Amino acid sequence: MRNASLEKVLNQAKKRSDKSVNSPARLVQVLVKDGDDVRNLISVVGTLTLVAVAIVPVFAATMGVQTRVGKCEMKNKRTREEVARVITIPSPTFMASVPWLSEDLPNAA
């Protein structure tokens, strides 16, 4: 790629090279710098890809734990609702042992 670019630069008219912006040294510098920048970009993209792939197992494990916790929460919620539905009827002996409850008891006699 660099050779093709250099060949195209060298095949241009001499009049174009008279400007300081288009001097051969400047053009070669830009070509080399751009090549290095592309290499660095590919390196960064590769590194970011590896980081993303490394995060996938952690994310999957977190989602698995969250699913299990959600199932436990649903089970506990259902159990709590079932317990709340149970009506507890205290025995007469218990009612008689608590003074403020014994007043409400009908006389057995």
Automatic annotation (TrEMBL):
Keywords assigned by UniProt, alphabetized: Membrane, Transmembrane, Transmembrane helix
GO cellular component, one term: membrane
InterPro entries in the cross-refs: ABC1_TM_sf
GO molecular function annotation: ATP binding
Originating species: Crucibulum laeve
Protein name (record): Uncharacterized protein
Parts of the chain that traverse the membrane: 41-62, 83-102
Gene3D superfamilies in the cross-refs: ABC transporter type 1, transmembrane domain
